[in-house]
Automatic annotation (TrEMBL):
Localization: Nucleus
Pfam families xref list: Med10 (PF09748)
SUBUNIT field: Component of the Mediator complex.
Keyword terms, alphabetized: Activator, Nucleus, Transcription, Transcription regulation
Family of the protein in this entry: Belongs to the Mediator complex subunit 10 family.
GO biological process, one term: regulation of transcription by RNA polymerase II
Protein name: Mediator of RNA polymerase II transcription subunit 10
GO cellular component, one term: mediator complex
Gene: MED10
GO molecular function: transcription coregulator activity
Organism expressing this protein natively: Lutzomyia longipalpis (Sand fly)
Length: 133
């Protein structure tokens, strides 16, 4: 497991932990006395799994997860959809901003035309000062 990056190690340990909890749930839901030893082994595996996860926490302390990801998980959504939704929102906002920029450019061009008609000398001086000629 050490050849993986810390996030992969954590993911693997969490998956094993979740599987162990699932197996314990099955054993407990249909508990029979002869299954006590197996249940004890699974509970010990649960404790060991928590200890392994605790050991990995120092390797992933600098990983920041947006709170919205937890909202996705709480809503039963796949947390990977968060990234897709963020990209979709960014695209939408980008198109909106691009539209505004285009509108401002057209406004500026029209304003310059009108200023040129109304105040040609002043606009030429302004352009000379800005170096726009």
């Amino acid at each position: 497991m050490d050849c993986k990056n810390p996030l992969e190690n954590l993911e693997t340990n969490l998956e094993m932990f979740i599987e162990n909890v699932r197996q314990i749930r099955i054993i407990v839901s249909d508990f029979q006395a002869q299954g006590q030893n197996v249940l004890n082994q699974k509970i010990q595996g649960l404790v060991t799994g928590l200890q392994e996860i605790d050991k990995l926490k120092s390797q992933v302390q600098n990983v920041h997860v947006p709170f919205e990801v937890f909202d996705y998980i709480d809503q039963g959504k796949n947390p990977q959809l968060y990234t897709k939704d963020c990209i979709d929102k960014a695209r939408s906002k980008n198109e909106e901003v691009k539209g505004k920029i285009d509108a401002y450019r057209k406004f500026k061009a029209n304003m310059v035309l009108e200023l040129q008609k109304t105040f040609p000398n002043e606009l030429n001086k302004y352009r000379a000062l800005r170096g726009d000629e």
